[in-house]
Amino acid sequence: MKIVPGMAGPSEVRSVTPAGSVQPSSGPSAPAAAATLQSTVLKPALEALREQPEIDHARVAELRDALARGELPFDSAKLAALIARYHGVRR
User: Fold this and answer.
1) N or C: which end of the chain has fewer CB within 10 A?
2) Maximum Cα–Cα distance for the chain, whole Å?
3) pLDDT of the residue at 66
4) What is 7-21 written as a DSSP string?
5) pLDDT, tens digit, for every residue of 5-31?
């Protein structure tokens, strides 16, 4: 829907064409150029992200072992409070 400044009321609402029924123009447009630029800029970043492991298993093992040896402090009350705060629990 297009909002026109200075509209008097609902009687002046113009018809809206559904997005799927609009035919693209044959010439280049600003949105198409922006999409191409965005695709060019983001493509290397997306490829690098895909190359990363979903989980850094080596780091998880390192932290788990340090926690088991008592080298990594753990405060269960603080963790519980952070989880409650994240989920919006109010006391």
Assistant:
1) C
2) 73
3) 95
4) --SGGGPPP---GGG
5) 554 544 444 555 555 555 555 555 667
